[in-house]
Amino acid sequence: MASEHVLRIPCGEDESKFVLVNVISVGPAEFDLKLIGTEGISPYVAIVKNTRIQRLRTKHSPVDEAEWETLLRATLLQQRIEGAARVTLGSIEVVATIDEGQIIVAVRRNISGITQRLGEIVLKKDEDQEIDTITWVATAVARSQALEQEADDLRAMVKEQGELVRALNKQLEDLGRLKTDHENALLYKFRELLNAKKLKIRNQQRLLATAKVNQSKGSSPQSALHGSNKRKPTSDPSRSTTDSEDAAFGDMKIDTRTPSPEVDDANPGSPEKSDSEVTSDEL
Fold first, then answer.
1. pTM of the predicted model, to two decimals?
2. Which position among 101, 107, 112, 156 has the lowest Cβ density within 10 Å, counted as fewest Cβ atoms?
3. What value does the mean pLDDT take over residues 37-62?
4. Quick one: pLDDT band at residue 259, thresholds 50, 70, 90?
């Protein structure tokens, strides 16, 4: 079954005047089309071939072949265009002109009231062409319902995405508050730890200062004490004399032999006998 859709094309600037064009796909190629139009009185027909669509451009058209095909898809086939090409479609419009037994459907660019024709399709009057208005209306209604359903789906999706965005924003706000609270808590702990470290350092500095003062005050007596402990004890003269005499007596040997007279004669200057010795001899 050939696909078809109905276009409402205004006649110039007057939106109240228009023509209806039924676009029917009649071939395997994308632009193998049959266009049946009417202004409400007579039928008009045009056959478009996929291999001849470039002939529909005007002689000095500023758009290239790819851009022209994109414009026909958007205007004639009512396809949704995505990407960067969609931006250029905002200034594109389609208008119809009824002139001498033909309808001229022009594709033009309108920038601030300045129009530039890019291409056109001519539908010639054909009284033999039958117009089934009931079928056209049914086609238009079916397409309208499909588009309305698509719009409802998109609105529901947008609503769902909006709720999701709001939920994510709320989560981001909560995370931001938690991050701020966590940072404040870390800063508070760091400050407390830093103050504790400073206090500990000050206490240690005071202890070191106190220890240095005490050491400087007690150095002289302590050094004297250590010096006296290291000094050798002085020897007692009386004790040393006694010790030497004891050593001499200990080393002396007593001669028990009777001295010979020769020894006495040999030593005339020997000392006289003591009274005790004389007394003993006399006795």
1. 0.57
2. 112
3. 89
4. very low
